[in-house]
Amino acid sequence: MANMKILFLVGSLRRESLNGAAAASAAEMLPGGVEPTWFGRLDQLPHFDPDVEETNLPEAAQRLRGMVEEAAGVVICCPEYAHGASGVMKMTLEWLVGGTEMAAKPTMLVNVSTSNGGGLRAQRWLEETLTVMGVDVRPERVSVAAAARKVSGGRLVDEAALADLRGALDGFLTYVGSLGVGKDAVDLLY
């Protein structure tokens, strides 16, 4: 059986993104047989324009939709801005809402923030938006508060945050594997 692919989308453009660090840490936790895939910087996508979407879908949007379709699941790591998700994440979801690739796609939310709220408002915003899109937003999720001192060298280093991430990721992968996609890979977890 082919590897199960998990797509990571990071909703931050910062060079030393805390959410990028969480995504990198999660990708390193994946067991053998589970392959992390990355769209890369979300600013590759042009500003969303429904007229363009209908007549000439940009290459970056086509690639994003293709990667979502190929993935068994999606992990969204996104900061909180103004009590919601980042602008680039909002625009990314706009490019996906017109397609069918995210429908029923298992998706895990990870929100890392320097605030004491841990990005929970962004998490709620993402859950509401993704639910409207028909996404299978999973209960396995992570919120890391006061994260500036929990990240070093581009990775999460806080033991409690890492344990939360590992537990959520294990539950997420078990669920994704139960859908029959990459079942052999999920069996490697146990």
Automatic annotation (TrEMBL):
Domain NADPH-dependent FMN reductase-like as annotated: residue spans: 4-146
InterPro entries registered for this protein in UniProt: Flavoprotein-like_sf, FMN_Rdtase-like_dom, NAD(P)H-dep_reductase
Lineage: Bacteria, Bacillati, Actinomycetota, Actinomycetes, Micrococcales
UniProt name for this protein: NADPH-dependent FMN reductase-like domain-containing protein
